Amino acid sequence: MAIRLSISLHIACAIAFVAWPGGWPWVLATLAGCHLVLGWAGMRPRSRLLGPNLLRLPDTAARHGEIALTFDDGPDPYVTPKVLDILDRYGAKASFFCIGEKAAAHPEIVRDILRRGHGVENHTMRHSKLFALFGLTALRTDIAMAQSLLGNLAGRPPVFFRAPMGIRNPFLDPVVAGLGLTYTSWTRRGFDTSARDPAAVLARLTRGLAAGDIILLHDRKSAHGEPIVLMVLPLLLERIIATGLKSVSLQMAMR
User: Is the pTM of this model over 0.70?
Assistant: First the structure.
């Protein structure tokens, strides 16, 4: 939708420039405004301006008291197995948005995620810091490579996709839709990869916690070298249970 609107606006501006050459400052300002709006939307992970964006679970899942735990950036050979053990201890299920290159390096962890009843989803092949600047071909190549690799390891293709850091550009939506994926963000996140204080992460995740929420954590070490997630996750699961909620994978919530 954003691409079509942008193309239509560019065509209209070209026609306006031909018909009214003296109005070029207005044409230029209009185009600049268009690009500013698209850039602003791409930097806001929860925006729906650039296409459909799953921010919460369906109403049916919410009525059943379900929330979805999601983990980005794995699998990690140290952190992910410990996350899986904690989830087992509390009888919780989750979805793991895996990076293709890491999955290829640790296929046994991907299989263990599935064996324990969790979901494996697509978080790009390389998790490039320049992902939001990719064009159509680069986006399609990167995401499709991860889709194929993860599908082969899991025995079924991922259903959900999340961009690195949640930053997008207008070309992403048609690529994700073309690969049959559902773009997914979150309801709340704890910033566990940058925070130093586990209590602050827990507070962000549990403040206003409600059925239907999609929670974002990371199964890797933080920027400070500590796997904050391992300190936060048991406390979070205890709070979820005490609130009468149930943690499920995204695919379980969509059934």
Answer: yes
